[in-house]
């Protein structure tokens, strides 16, 4: 894609190195999540560097992915977004438009001392590998973790989704409107409700994973 053709939204920033991104403060359940949305490899690498410098390993990262809904049988749309979240910092990477796959991102995902957590995270990991050749070394499914823990009795007779797990384990109430779930994740400029949705999914995954793995 010719990046010169892109029109930046009003809240999108360009720095002296032509790094393109937008910043958003997502409010959720009394928390403020500092969220960066980008299709710039340089921005991704800067975020990864900051996380590595700030947090002492081993640590947990919430991981989630989005892609355009598949309306044609047998057709699988490519992964559009990769969301990563640790504590109150979230990165939304528009992989569909990224200028190059960052080397530091490859290393981050492949670091065995970092545990990536999410619901059905194996399917996201497979999609990352199939779509972009990105390998995630250490991923844990928070649903499986919950069902193998003392929390299992809270979900007797049902298969909990992220919303159920968030409420029972982390005490977080989520709203997952279908019009956002099924929206166009391929869009070059994401809507605010898409950014909030993508951020919150990764943030909640982080909170649940931390609670289950640290038992705190």
CATH superfamily: Ribonuclease H-like superfamily/Ribonuclease H
The tally of beta strands, per DSSP, is: 8
In percent, how much strand structure appears in the residues? Answer: 15-25%
Just give the CATH class.
Answer: Alpha Beta
CATH architecture: 2-Layer Sandwich
- How many helices in DSSP terms? 7
Q: What best-fitting shape do the alpha-carbon axes yield?
A: globular
| Major sheet characteristics | 8 strands, mixed
Please give the radius of gyration in angstroms.
17 Å
Helix coverage percent: 25-40%
Would you list the SSEs in sequence order as H and E? EEEHEEEHEHEHHHH
Strand order in the sheet with the most strands: 1-2-3-6-5-4-7-8
For the record, give the distance between the C-alpha atoms at the N and C termini, rounded to a whole number. 46 Å
Determine the CATH topology.
Answer: Nucleotidyltransferase, domain 5
User: Helix/strand-derived class?
Assistant: alpha/beta
Count of individual domains: 1
Low-confidence stretches: 1-8
Mean pLDDT: 91
List the helices and strands and how they pair.
Elements: E1 12-14, E2 20-28, E3 31-38, H1 41-54, E4 59-67, E5 79-86, E6 89-94, H2 103-109, E7 114-118, H3 121-132, E8 139-141, H4 142-147, H5 162-170, H6 178-181, H7 192-214
Parallel strand pairs: 3-6, 4-7, 7-8
Antiparallel strand pairs: 1-2, 2-3, 4-5, 5-6
Helix pairs in contact: 1-2, 5-7
